[in-house]
Every structure is written in C-alpha cells, then in structure tokens.
C-alpha cells in the first residue's frame, strides 16, 4: 500500500533569451538588460517549481492548467501562476514541505539575488525560508546554455498531508 501522506515531485523548464526584459527568476529581476522568450514573464524558476508541485500529485504539467494558447496568459507573472498551483495543491489536502531549485545559466549570476529569491519563493509557497534551497551552476560552455542562449531550471519538492 502506498503512503500518500508524503509525495515528491520533480520539475524542469528552460527558455531562450529574447523578447523584452527583464529576466525574472523566482519573482526577482536578475538581469534588467535581457528578456526571455515566453508567453508569460518567462520565470523558469516559477515554472519548474509549479511543474514539480503538480507532478508530485500526478496532476500533469503547468500547460495543462494554464495553456500558452489562453490569451489571459500573455505577459502574466509566473509567480501568480505558482500561487495558483499552490492553491490547487492545498485544495487537494497537501502542503509544501520543501523545495530545492537548481538554476543552470552561463552568465546570469544567482548569488546577488539568492536571498530575495528564497524569500519570494517561501512567501508564495507558504513555507519557511529555511525550507527553500536555490543553487546555481553553469554548463562550462557546453551546449545552448553554455553558449548563453538561455536558462534552464530543475526543481524538486516534497508535499505532505
């Protein structure tokens, strides 16, 4: 028998640089000079965390709930979408336990923004800041990320009843 009191989810998202700025991660402007190609504001951290939350309860992905073909999604703040996903999770009797995020980017630096990003995620997920981890890495010049064409993010979450 499966113990459904605790669930684990994993999410991934990636976007190319482009469009109008700024680059926003976890609701925080990390690069005011560039933008991300996306229907929404292109916040890949919010997207990956939302997918991880939905995946933990086997509910599908962000696009199933908020399709990019919906005109209301044009330019929407991704942290608002994440807040909506949190409500979906809570409506199903679960709460977020913790989140672990890895940002993969060649030139965007996370360290100057890490604390604010943790604070924003914690507030949106309704958890303590000590339960939010944000790490960063590069691909050492390999592939599209290494050529500084965009940003990718992975996220792991735990949920509990």
Notes on the protein architecture:
This protein has 161 residues and is α+β, with helices and mostly antiparallel strands. It has a single domain (6-160), classed as 60s Ribosomal Protein L30, Chain: A. Helices cover 29% and strands 28% of the residues. It is built from five helices and six strands, in the order βββαααβαβαβ. It has a four-stranded mixed beta sheet. It has a two-stranded antiparallel sheet with strand order 2-3. A hairpin with a 2-residue loop joins β2 (23-25) and β3 (28-31).
Named CATH architecture: 2-Layer Sandwich
Distance between the termini: 16 Å
What's the name of the CATH homologous superfamily?
A: 2-C-methyl-D-erythritol 2,4-cyclodiphosphate synthase
Beta-strand segment tally: 6
The largest sheet has its strands arranged as: 1-6-4-5
Which segments are poorly predicted (pLDDT under 50) over 5 or more consecutive residues? none
Q: Beta-strand level of the residues, as a percent range?
A: 25-35%
The biggest beta sheet, please? 4 strands, mixed
Which term fits the overall shape? globular
- Sketch the topology as an H/E string, one letter per element: EEEHHHEHEHE
For the record, the count of structural domains works out to 1
Q: Radius of gyration, rounded?
A: 15 Å
């Amino acid at each position: 028998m499966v113990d459904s009191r605790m669930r684990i989810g994993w999410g991934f998202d990636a976007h190319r640089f482009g469009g109008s700025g700024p680059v926003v991660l976890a609701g925080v402007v990390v690069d005011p000079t560039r933008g991300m190609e996306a229907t929404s504001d292109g916040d890949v951290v919010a997207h990956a965390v939302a997918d991880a939350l939905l995946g933990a309860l086997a509910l599908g992905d962000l696009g199933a709930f908020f399709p990019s073909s919906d005109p209301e999604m044009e330019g929407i703040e991704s942290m608002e979408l994440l807040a909506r996903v949190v409500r979906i999770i809570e409506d199903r009797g679960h709460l977020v336990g913790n989140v672990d995020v890895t940002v993969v980017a060649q030139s965007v630096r996370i360290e100057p923004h890490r604390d604010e990003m943790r604070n924003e995620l914690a507030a949106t997920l309704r958890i303590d800041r000590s339960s939010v981890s944000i790490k960063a890495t590069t691909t050492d010049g390999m592939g599209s990320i290494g050529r500084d064409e965009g940003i990718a993010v992975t996220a792991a979450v735990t949920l509990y009843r």
